Amino acid sequence: MVRFKNRWLLVEFIPIVSSASDRAIATTQSQEEISGKDVFNALKQSVLLHFGDIGWGEVGASLAVKYFSPATNLCILRVARGPATSTAWAALVLLDRVRAGDGEGRKVVPHVIHVSGTLKHAQIAAAGVGVCGPSGCPHFFVVVVLTASTGIACRCSGPTREVNRAL
Known about the structure:
Elements: E1 6-15, H1 20-28, H2 36-59, E2 64-69, E3 74-80, H3 83-93, E4 97-98, E5 106-116, H4 119-127, E6 150-152, E7 161-163
Protein name: Rpp14/Pop5 family-domain-containing protein
Organism: Russula earlei
């Protein structure tokens, strides 16, 4: 019996708020939360749009969303090893919004944090996202800086990390 070998992609979906009026709407109204099914559908549409039926035939049989957290916007995707991984990664990079239900969708920047051969190591990498210092102190924080880099220091006097996510 042949075993199917997969790659596991840990992806963070960074939400984009473009204008001051959108920020006011976002703070007063609760936006529809996206789910794992919405991420799968958005990725499927991205593959079909940019790579056509051949790309979807390559990726579609093995693509699965194993984990998605709306609180942290972290997602673990399973895809077949080989060219299917490159196609799925490229479709992720070309993705600009994830539609929740029938709505217009949320604009996002997908950021592939880690690629691994096992689900366990993808989960270990996901647990380390937002942990300060190599020792992994318990002060978790979520910081999104879209235009400039900044230094972040933890309360435990751990090392300062640089965060730079320029658009």
